[in-house]
Every structure is written in C-alpha cells, then in structure tokens.
Amino acid sequence: MHETDMTKALIFTVRDWLDKQSEKSAAQLQPGPPKVERVHLVVGEFTCVEPASLQFAFTAQTKGTFLEGVELVIQDKPLIAFCHPCQQEYKPQIGSQYACPTCGAPMDDIRSGRELKIERVEFSNAT
Amino acid sequence: MHQTFDAVLEMNLLQANQDGADANRDRFNRWGITCLNLMSSPGSGKTQLLEETLRSLQSELRMAVIEGDMTTQLDANRLRECGVPVIAINTGRACHLDSKMVAGGLHQLEHELEQENGQPSDFDLVFVENVGNLVCPAEFEVGEHAKVALLSITEGEDKPLKYPIMFREADCLLITKMDLAPYLDVSIETIIANVRQLNTHAKIIPVSSKTYEGLDDWYAWVRHQVNLRRRS
Q1: Where is Ni(2+) bound in this sequence (chain A) (predicted)?
Q2: Between A41, A98, A125, which is nearest B5 by CB?
C-alpha cells in the first residue's frame, strides 16, 4: 500500500521539477513544455519500497496524467555497510543480521541501500 | 523533428514531502514548540502511553496532539478527555501521516486556538501520533524534532530485525506492556540487542502504562527534548 503513496510523491516531485523547467524555457522563449519519456529511479534495498509494487503502482496511477505511458526504470542498490573497527565493507543480512559478521560491531555507517532517488529524467522536445 | 534530452535530477523521491516537513519544522521552531513523532504497529499502546503522559506532564508543559487514524475518531476522543487540544487527521487509505497532512493539522490547530484567544507559541510540545504501522511512517518525515518508536513486548524479539528502518531511525524506543513480561517467553535483553545491531544512539526505555514502570524515565527524556528547543 505504501508504494501508492511513494508513487504519488514521485508524481508530485516530477511535476514540481517540470513546472520549474517550463518557467525557465518560457523565459528563454523556447518551444513548449518537454515531454517526459523515461524516469530513472535508484531504489535502495534498505528502504520500505518494493520495486515490483512501485512499477505496478506507477502504471496504474499515472493513467490520465502527464506521466501516462512513461517508462519507469528502477535500479536496485544493495545494502552495504562499513565497519569502522574492521575498516571494511560488508553486506548485512536483512531480517536476521545487521552487525558486522567479523567483529560484531553494530551497523552504523551505511554506504548504500538507503537511496530513494529520481536519478534522471529523459524527455523529448518537438522542434 | 524529435529531440531527446536527458536531465540529471539526483533528487530525493520524497523531496516534496521533505520540503513540507522542513516547512513544518520551521513553524514549530518559530513557535518554540518541540514536535515528537510517535510510531509503532497497531495496538502497541501509543494512545494509552499518551493518555498517561498528557495527564502527568500537564501541570508543567502545554501540550497538543495531532492524531492520525485511518478511519475513526476513537483515539482522538480518548485523548480529548485528557483536556488538551487534539487535531484528528483521518488518513483514509494512506497508511502513514505525511508532511502535508500535518501542515493541515497545524493550520487547524492555529485556527482552533485563535477562537479561544490562544496561539501556538503558548505551547511547548506537540505529539504526532502516527498511524499504526511499522513500515511506512519511518520514511515520511512530518517535521518532527525526534522520532519515538514503541514496541510492545508481546510483539516478539525479532521485530527490530524484520522492520529495521523504523528501529534504526528512532531516537527513543519504548518497550511497552512490560507488566506482561512475566507471562511471556520473551527476553528483553534480546530485544535490546537486536535494536543495538541497527541503532547505537536511541534511548531505550522499558515501560508499562499500567504499572507506570519506566514512565519517569520517559518523562525525563521528553523534558530534555523540550529544554533543548527552549534554549535554542
């Protein structure tokens, strides 16, 4: 269910950004608003977002909006932590073991896996 | 002719929510109010803890509650009995509060206080009682200064491992319903060790709203949070 809200948030964020772009292009007397073709996301493993559910929600919720038919490309990022006592990276086992497997130090420094990011947007302009 | 462009955004997916949360926090700061976001699974005792807290701290702090509930006013009505302003937000199908809903709640609070010739800056503390859910509320900031997670001892030792984000993000963890501990095969030490795998900074306090175990420690933590903001 929370992917529905994530998608809503995604649509708001892209629209906000696009509105700002349109203002800029209007100021520079460029042709009409750009059309979004593809949205690239980076979704970390250590977030509450399930990529398959997000894909589904995106397709369903963008119907009839400016993002209808736009392709959503999701890049997964694994959870990687850095253990300071051992000075090395390790991969925590989500659901069972987060502490460092070598020395048992708590998972403190997360190097990747918390991303929830719109990396880039591909769009086209009819000229 | 058809040209394609590529724009690098590198933008937080929840940027719009984050901006709203920052705006809410600015308002709290201007008013000198501390905001605590209470999160847990359904039935872990958020509302009863709040009832006790509101009654116990009422003589020293001016408090209000923003109450998120999916469909009913039941919790809000219970809290109104404690004699503090309660703004109820029905989230409908949404499983968490977001910053926009809380902004609406703040607007309503301001309006209600005005009608009684009061204002938000008369207040010290706002509790946001989030929707009962261990997953989503952890990702949606609402403008709080600190996150409080509750885990009732009946939920079992493994929950911090299964719902890691909530327990990692928490600044304070209350292990509730401690009065039931003698009847359960649950080790409080294991719960704490599991939380510590993920979160080294949270203050962990075992409490019971029934026997009042640990509540003085919780109140001391709340007072400390309020004093941090008062000074700054």
Answers
A1: 2
A2: A125
- Taking CB atoms and an 8 Å cutoff, what residues of chain A touch B200? 106, 108
Q: Which residue in A4, A13, A97 has the most chain B C-beta atoms within 10 A of its own C-beta, making it the best mutation to test that interface?
A: A13
Instruction: Report the CATH number of the B15-231 domain.
Output: 3.40.50.300
Q: Can you give the residue ranges of every domain in chain B? A: 15-231
The pLDDT tens digits for B192-221 are: 999 999 999 999 999 999 999 999 999 999
- State the amino acid at position A72 in one-letter form: L
Question: Does an H or E element contain B146, and which?
Answer: strand B146-152
CATH class of this structure's domain A2-77+116-124: alpha beta
β-bridge pairing A71-77 and B2-12? unpaired
Contact A47 B165 (CB under 8 A): yes
Closest CA to B122 of B33, B60, B54: B33
pTM to 2 decimal places: 0.90
Condensed to tens digits (0 to 9), the pLDDT of residues A76-117 reads 999 999 999 999 999 999 999 999 999 999 999 999 999 999
The ipTM of this complex is 0.83
